[in-house]
């Protein structure tokens, strides 16, 4: 299934180095475009428009970059996104240029759906242990997320592993197939009390003590 794309208009950037602070103060975010087969380019975009596009595309939706003054378009993914740790402004974005006919790798979020009969019947809950899958796919066929149905968790100690996921035919999973994705929570084992003192051991010690006490008492007399 071919994904929808998002478009973004960028401008060439001449302001470099420490001077980019001026751009940020003016509400403009510096952008860097790189990738195989292309010359890295310094670009820029109004922060408000860039934030809007990134919120829509996320990390796995390809973005069609249109550069002002150029007739060509470039398919790319947002890869490194930096934010101002204090003010929360968008500081910088790196775009990785890709070809529509070459497979790329990405981390795709896992979303749990449905209900686990095993958890419901045992009064337990499902714990998600893996949040993302490493996958490869063509850029326009990269899934935005992978849904995992909890219905197969019918046992009170059921487990879903990566190998139990069936991705679309055009997507290959790179994550270790033995990795646990989700499981029914197993309650902590109850603390087992130490076994009672065996017959003869405790009694023998008590008797020995009593005898010793008796002997000591006789000696004092």
Number of beta strands: 13
Order of strands, main sheet, comes to 1-3-2-6-5-4
Distance between the termini: 101 Å
Uncertain residue segments: 199-221
* Overall shape: elongated
Question: What is the arithmetic mean of pLDDT?
Answer: 85
- As a percent range, the share of helical residues equals 10-25%
- In N-to-C order, the SSE pattern is EHEEHEEEEHEEEEEEH
What does this structure look like?
The protein is α+β, with helices and mostly antiparallel strands and 221 residues long. Helix content is 19%, strand content 35%. Mean pLDDT is 85; it is low at 199-221. It contains four helices and 13 strands. It is elongated and about 60 Å long. The longest helix is centred in the C-terminal third of the chain and has 20 residues, at 201-220. The protein has helices at residues 20-25, 47-57, 117-122, 201-220, and strands spanning 6-12, 28-34, 41-46, 63-67, 73-83, 90-97, 104-113, 126-128, 132-137, 146-149, 159-161, 172-173, 180-184. A six-stranded mixed barrel has the order 1-3-2-6-5-4. A four-stranded mixed beta sheet has the order 10-7-9-12, with no helix packed on it. A hairpin with a 6-residue loop joins strand 5 (73-83) and strand 6 (90-97). It starts with 5 loop residues before the first strand and ends with a helix.
SSE arrangement:
Layout: E1 6-12, H1 20-25, E2 28-34, E3 41-46, H2 47-57, E4 63-67, E5 73-83, E6 90-97, E7 104-113, H3 117-122, E8 126-128, E9 132-137, E10 146-149, E11 159-161, E12 172-173, E13 180-184, H4 201-220
Parallel strand pairs: 1-4, 2-6, 7-10
Antiparallel strand pairs: 1-3, 2-3, 4-5, 5-6, 7-9, 8-13, 9-12, 11-13
């Amino acid at each position: 299934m071919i994904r929808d794309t998002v478009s973004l208009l960028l401008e060439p950037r001449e302001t470099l180095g420490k001077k980019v602070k001026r751009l940020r103060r003016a509400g403009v975010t510096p952008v860097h475009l790189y990738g195989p087969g292309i010359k890295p380019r310094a670009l820029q975009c109004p922060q408000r428009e860039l934030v809007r596009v990134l919120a829509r595309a996320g990390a796995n939706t390809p973005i069609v970059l249109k550069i002002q003054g150029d007739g060509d378009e470039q398919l790319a993914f947002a890869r490194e996104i930096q934010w101002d740790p204090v003010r929360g402004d968008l500081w910088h974005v790196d775009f990785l240029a890709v070809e529509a006919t070459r497979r790329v790798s990405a981390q795709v979020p896992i979303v749990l759906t449905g209900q686990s009969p095993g958890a419901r019947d045992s009064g337990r809950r499902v714990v998600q242990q893996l949040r993302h899958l490493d996958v490869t796919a063509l850029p326009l066929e990269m899934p935005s997320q992978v849904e995992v149905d909890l219905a197969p968790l019918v046992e009170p100690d059921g487990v879903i592993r990566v190998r139990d996921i069936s991705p679309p035919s055009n997507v290959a999973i790179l994550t270790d197939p033995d990795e646990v994705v989700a499981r029914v929570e197993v309650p902590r084992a109850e603390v087992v009390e130490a076994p009672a003192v065996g017959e003869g051991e405790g009694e023998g010690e008590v008797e020995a003590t009593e005898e010793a006490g008796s002997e000591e008492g006789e000696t004092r007399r």
